[in-house]
Amino acid sequence: MGEQTQTQIQTQTQDQAQALIQPPRHDSSAASDIPRATPSATELSNAPPQTSSPPSKIPFRPRKIRKLSPENESDSKSSQIVVAAAETPKPLATKSAKSKSGQQQRSTALTLPRIVARSLSCEGEVEIALRHLRSADPVLGPLIDLHQPPTFDTFQAPFLALTRSILYQQLAYKAGTSIYTRFIALCGGEAGVLPETVLALTPQQLRQIGVSGRKASYLHDLARKYQNGILSDAAIVNMDDKSLFTMLTMVNGIGSWSVHMFMIFSLHRPDVLPINDLNVRKGVQLLYNLEDLPRPSQMDQLCDKWRPYRSVASWYMWRLAEAKGAPSTAAAVAAGASLQQQQQEQSQHQHQHTQQPQLLDPINSILNLGACAWGQ
Question: Which residue ranges does the record annotate as region Disordered (predicted)?
């Protein structure tokens, strides 16, 4: 009995030792309960490498491989979706870009093109100016219909035109023309009116032809600025309006009114508003039925709609004021226009109105009415 028990104990010990060395066997019924999946080559390649485990541990089960395979596939698909989503532009960004583009297009459409006016002596520019003024200010339409369009075809060298403007200061047309004719003869003709020629004339010589001592100093100051290079005909022609106004008002005896007349009738600048001219102000008062004469500081605001052809509109303000009995300014004569042109305009004015106002020098008439003073 003792031997039999000892034999059984030895057999059990051997079986336990063998169980530790060899993996347990599963019978067919147990194996059938666990679904067996044979991993494919792709699954095996995607599966993480298996490390060798000690013999005492249970080896990696197929269930783990089966669970990992769908997860790997889903991870792969999700990564592909993420990549595709990153490459595809977002609908919200597209709408935002379209909205921004649309706003830019609308802002561009609302920005009106800026009219760039040319010299009024350019062919067809006066007609363009009249069309613009009719559209910008319909009140001007009937006034434009009453008069022949202005002409800006007379040109003199800037130095000659400025000299002429100084000589006509505070004089009636007849007296100014007499002095100007003697001055031209003293210089040897209009072609001889040059800075060096004027500087060579003494105040005594100028006084002999009727030029006052003050005007002689004005003429010499203008000639010196030319000789020193501060001014020149080429620079004056090419300067913008603001710079030109600043430079010319530096000359003794040349004020803002004379600069405006020079810019309109000698240089044919299209957008000049003589805010100190009494007849232009009077014309604005009549045009808009204002109770009071507009102040020079109000003129810019009242006439802003005329840009960039305020010179042409100012010409019609002169005509309107003269038609209502204001003295004729004859601004074109003092600024360099021909006498024949001024006489033609005056003849037309006389034909339209039975009572013709006396033709006066622009500066003289304005000073008599207290509108401005020269040399300020």
Answer: 1-109, 334-357
Per residue in 216-254, pLDDT tens?
A: 999 999 999 999 999 999 999 999 999 999 999 999 999
Position 35 pLDDT exceeds 60: no
Cβ neighbours of residue 121 closer than 8 Å, sequence gap 6 or more = 152, 153, 155, 268
Query: Residue 286 contacts by C-beta under 8 Å, 6 or more apart in sequence?
Result: 320, 321, 324
Q: What percent of the chain has pLDDT over 70?
A: 56
pTM above the 0.70 mark?
Answer: no
Tokens 């232009």 belong to 280
Spell out the long-range contacts of 111-118 with Cβ–Cβ below 8 A and sequence spacing 24 or more.
115/308, 116/308, 117/270, 117/271, 117/308, 117/309, 118/270
3-state percent helix, strand, coil for the chain, nearest multiple of 5? 65, 0, 35
> Could you tell me the pLDDT band of residue 31, with boundaries at 50, 70 and 90?
very low
Task: Please give the structure tokens belonging to residue 230.
Answer: 């501060």
User: How does DSSP classify residue 190?
Assistant: G
> 98 with 130: CB under 8 angstroms?
no
Burial 236-257 (b: 16+ CB within 10 A, else e): beebeeeebbebbeebbbbbbb
Report the percent of the chain where pLDDT is more than 90: 52
Domain that holds residue 336: 131-368
Whether residue 308 has a cis bond before it, omega within 30° of 0: yes
User: 51 lies in a domain?
Assistant: no
Residue 305 domain-assigned (yes or no): yes
Burial grade of 219 (CB within 10 A; 0-12, 13-18, 19 or more): buried
In whole angstroms, give the CA distance from residue 282 to residue 87: 72
Q: Is the dihedral of CA 213, 216, 222, 228 positive or negative?
A: negative
Place of tokens 């032809």: 209
User: 114 in a domain, yes or no?
Assistant: no
Distances (CA, A) of 145 to 135, 140, 142, 333: 14, 9, 5, 24
